[in-house]
Amino acid sequence: MNRVIDRLLTLLMLALLGWVGFSGVHWLLFAADWTVVTANLPLYAVGGYPPDQRWRPLVWIALLILMTAITLMGPRRGWLRRGLPALWSLMVPLGVVLLAGGLGLQPVPTREWGGFSLTLLLTVCSALLSLPAGVLLALGRRSDLPVLRVASTAYIEVMRAVPLIAVLFFGQLLIPLFLPPGLELNRVLRAVIAFALFAAAYIAEDVRGGLQAIPPTQTEAAAVLGLSPFQSLRLVVLPQALRIALPALTNQAVGLLQNTSLMAILGLVELLGISRSLLANPAFIGRYLEVYVWLAAVYWLACTAMALLARHLEIQLDPLRSS
What we know:
By secondary structure, the protein is mostly helical. The protein folds into two domains: 51-98, no CATH class; 109-323, MetI-like fold (Orthogonal Bundle). It has 14 helices and no strands. Helix 9 (187-212) packs across helix 11. The longest helix has 31 residues, at 229-259.
């Protein structure tokens, strides 16, 4: 009797899943009106960037996609593989120069930045600032100096107890109040600082977990070889701790990318901000499902690419799997 019930439930679940899948595919291919997306692809990519200068953020996005493809599917050996770290390190300054202007390019104010290019810039810059800050906080929390240990612990616990949206409001509204007269930070830079301050606390805990996973025999062996405590930390302990913490750090990077959507509440027209402005257009009223399905697909592709890059790096750093 139980087997009959199990089979019936299985058939019912399969029929339900088949109906949902068929309905979803039918809606995607025949019922949905994707003109709200196809007619506004430039807006999704670059936002309100000047039309005659849109090639600049588009070139940067294309280079990031090309670098991702080369990293994941390129040759395992050769000069290109050896030069990938240097090429990746150039992507952030190149993106800032292309978007902001300089080196002969027309300056573009940050209020005209937007779309997917702004989302990527916020994510990458915030991650680059928060990673070293998180490492320093993790080391400070494990320090033998009471003042440094208490200060690092207090910062981490306070930041982890405060909602991200509150930190973003602080960054956008209160940071200018603490700046000296004549010094002004644009909204994008304030957002990057707020994201970095928030993410550093979580990264610190991930790195601290990696540090705790390193057995004391590692530092003892380094001391026997004549390495100083700083050399032991830099050459032995920290590289292993970061490799152990890499999956958790990947989660933080993916979460940072997704959390950039909160900036739509504060006036930056990234991906979600573009979608909200399009839905306010009378020509696209009622196209909520198409817009948010498209938005979910873009975020899924970006997050999947980040996860694949992190997985590739994890394999490269594992001597047993990369050999």
